[in-house]
């Protein structure tokens, strides 16, 4: 009801009418932005227990008709989980789909046994119940499936949601933090629909599927009613392949306050923030009474040649979310000058430097093998990972379990938006990213951690590797063979 027409594209570029266009037509903003419900945990013996059920269903996303979709505790997407630092949580994940899947906690620092990667498949009808204690600062994390070779399809059909971490320090800063009121989840995805409103899974190019309809929290043409002077948007690029350069239609500045792994040192004023698949940013937008402005993705430079940029959607202008301020706005506290202390990891403490070249759906020339451990890390050590994109396709790089810091990009210090904690980072071709990270959780060969490109088609094609985290001196050869796959 009241669903706006999807963005209409008129061009033809060899993919029927579903290709990308440089300029996207007007979006009819008339759907109230849905806010994913907060999952209600139950409390048992000091543990907060959440229940998530992956299920198939049907959703009316666009007015043309219903689509088969997947969701968690619903037919499309899932609830927002929320927990605070030091809280012990357990999530009972039940799979009511008719195929196996997994659920991975993207950005979460946790034992590998709870990570939900491709070795932790949940068979149809089964329940998987990872438990861990939240051990990281306030941040906007997310969850999504991770079955090897099938991640793109499972995410595209609708499995995913936010996992918000709170901590005491963040709660005392006076930031907007009233969920769904002045603290708004903004899960951005691009989808293709056919003329009967069904999700299309075949519009795939070199880099994966690009959709022409942008959904926020599962809805096209969304409108957010603004009720306060300052509103926090928790932006998540949950698309499978598309990157967004977020900004506002009037080019206003906004304050970026957090990257993937939590608060920045101080608010950073920007007019654009690039988020590639899997990345998050929290921003504060200030509005005056009665004002309207559109959150938009602008054409951007992925460091690729122009032809390649088109096939990534980087040349598109996309209207995403209309913000409409009430005539009376609640007062908001001023933004604090300082947000968080970020202890810099010291490169001289690193015990190992590894290199990762991403090229042709491979990392260091190798395609993901479930039975091959690629890297053996010693627990309680710091390492430097030098990562670069060796060809002219867009890739990013995500590491499980850790949040890393960017030491240098081709010898230069990172810009402020990349100076905080990150778990996923865009790699323009040929620039060398020097990352530093510390490993404090174990991963044995039966359940290793992953690193991979988060363009999910690339990941599915094998652009992924596996690492274990073990005691010093543990024999890597033994590890390579001594497991049961
Ligand atoms: Cu968001 Cu290995 O994934
Ligand atoms: Cu890639």
TrEMBL record:
Pfam families: Cu-oxidase_2 (PF07731), Cu-oxidase_3 (PF07732)
Molecular functions (GO terms): copper ion binding; oxidoreductase activity
Sorted UniProt keywords: Cell cycle, Cell division, Metal-binding, Oxidoreductase
Domain Plastocyanin-like residue range list: 64-169, 357-470
Domain of life: Bacteria
One of the GO BP terms on file: cell division
Family statement: Belongs to the multicopper oxidase family.
Protein name: Cell division protein SufI
Organism expressing this protein natively: Ruania alba
Lineage start: Bacteria, Bacillati, Actinomycetota, Actinomycetes, Micrococcales
């Amino acid at each position: 009801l009241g669903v706006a027409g999807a963005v209409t594209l008129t061009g033809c570029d060899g993919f029927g009418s579903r290709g990308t266009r440089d300029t996207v037509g007007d979006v009819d903003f008339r759907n109230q932005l849905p806010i994913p419900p907060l999952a209600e945990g139950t409390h048992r013996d000091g543990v907060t227990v959440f229940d998530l059920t992956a299920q198939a269903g049907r959703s009316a996303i666009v007015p043309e008709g219903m689509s088969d979709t997947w969701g968690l505790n619903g037919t499309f997407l899932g609830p927002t989980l929320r927990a605070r630092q030091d809280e012990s949580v357990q999530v009972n994940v039940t799979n009511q789909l008719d195929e196996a899947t997994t659920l991975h906690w993207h950005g979460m620092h946790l034992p590998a046994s709870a990570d939900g990667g491709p070795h932790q498949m949940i068979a149809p009808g089964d329940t998987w119940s990872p438990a861990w204690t939240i051990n990281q600062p306030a941040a906007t994390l997310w969850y999504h499936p991770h079955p090897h070779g099938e991640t793109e399809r499972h995410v595209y059909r609708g499995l995913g949601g936010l996992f918000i971490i709170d901590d005491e320090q963040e709660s005392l800063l006076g930031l907007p933090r009233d969920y769904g009121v002045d603290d708004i989840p903004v899960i951005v995805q691009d989808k293709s629909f056919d003329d009967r409103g069904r999700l299309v899974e075949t519009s795939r190019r070199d880099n994966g599927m690009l959709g022409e309809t942008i959904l926020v929290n599962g809805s096209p043409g969304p409108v957010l009613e603004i009720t306060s002077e300052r509103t926090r948007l928790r932006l998540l690029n949950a698309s499978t392949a598309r990157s967004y350069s977020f900004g506002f239609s009037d080019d206003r500045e906004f304050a970026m306050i957090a990257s993937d792994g939590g608060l920045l040192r101080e608010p950073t004023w920007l007019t654009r923030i690039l988020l590639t698949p899997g990345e998050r940013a929290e921003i504060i937008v200030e509005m005056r009474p009665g004002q309207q402005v559109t959150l938009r993705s602008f054409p951007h430079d992925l460091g690729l040649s122009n032809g390649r940029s088109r096939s990534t959607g980087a040349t598109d202008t996309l209207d995403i979310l209309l913000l409409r301020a009430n005539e009376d706005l609640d007062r908001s506290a001023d933004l604090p000058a300082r947000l968080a202390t970020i202890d810099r990891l010291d490169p001289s403490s690193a015990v190992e430097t590894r290199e990762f070249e991403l090229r042709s759906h491979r990392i260091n020339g190798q395609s993901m093998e479930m039975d091959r451990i690629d890297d053996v890390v010693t627990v309680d050590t710091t390492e430097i990972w030098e990562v670069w994109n060796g060809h002219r396709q867009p890739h990013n790089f995500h590491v499980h379990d850790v949040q890393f810091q960017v030491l240098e990009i081709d010898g230069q210090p990172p810009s402020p938006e990349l100076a905080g904690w990150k778990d996923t980072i865009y790699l323009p071709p040929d620039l060398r990213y020097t990352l530093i990270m510390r490993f404090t959780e174990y991963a044995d060969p039966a359940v290793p951690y992953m690193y991979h490109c988060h363009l999910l088609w690339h990941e599915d094609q094998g652009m992924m590797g596996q690492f274990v985290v073990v005691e010093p001196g543990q024999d890597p050869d033994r590890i390579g063979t001594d497991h049961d796959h």
